[in-house]
Design goal:
mainly alpha; 3-stranded antiparallel sheet; 6 helices; binds zinc ion
Length: 142
C-alpha cells in the first residue's frame, strides 16, 4: 500500500490534500481495482487485464505513472470535473493534492473554450467532500 507522505506534497498551498483512498472504496462497497483498470490509456488498452481479476491498486498506480499518465488521452478537457480530478491525483502518484493545486491545474491546464472549468475553489472543495464515487479522501497536511 502506498501511504501518501504529507511532507511530499508539492507547492505551498495551505489546507488539506485529497487523495484516492482504497479504504473508501471498501466503505462504498465498490472496487477501486476495476475503476483503475477501466482508466487505462488508449495506448495500453490492448493489454488491459481481465476485469474480473484486476491487479492490485499499488501495481496499477505504478503502471499509470509509467504509462497512462503521460498519454495525451489520459486527461481530456471534455471529461467531467470529478473524472479529471481523479486522474490528476492518480497522475501525481496518488499523493495528496490541495484544493488550490487541483484548482490551479484545472483552470490553467484543462480549461478550453468549450469547457471553461468554471468552478471556484469553494465549489471544487464541495465536489471533493460530497463525492461518493471516486474515493476522494481528505488528508490534513501539516
Ligand atoms: Zn497506459
Amino acid at each position: 500500500m502506498t501511504t501518501p507522505q504529507a511532507g511530499e506534497a508539492q507547492g505551498s498551498d495551505a489546507g488539506p490534500g485529497y487523495w484516492i483512498d482504497p479504504a473508501r472504496f471498501e466503505e462504498l462497497k465498490r472496487s477501486m481495482e476495476v475503476l483503475l483498470v477501466t482508466r487505462r490509456c488508449s495506448t495500453c488498452s490492448e493489454e488491459t487485464p481481465d476485469i474480473s481479476s484486476p491487479p492490485p491498486v499499488d501495481e496499477q498506480i505504478a503502471h499509470i505513472l509509467e504509462c497512462c499518465a503521460s498519454d495525451e488521452s489520459f486527461i481530456l478537457p471534455g471529461m467531467p470535473l470529478q473524472e479529471i480530478v481523479f486522474r490528476m491525483i492518480l497522475a501525481a502518484g496518488n499523493n495528496p493534492l490541495t484544493v488550490g493545486q487541483l484548482h490551479h491545474q484545472l483552470t490553467e491546464q484543462w480549461a478550453t473554450p468549450g469547457n471553461l472549468m468554471n468552478v471556484t475553489p469553494e465549489g471544487l472543495h464541495r465536489v471533493l467532500e460530497n463525492d461518493d464515487y471516486y474515493g476522494f479522501r481528505r488528508q490534513d497536511l501539516s
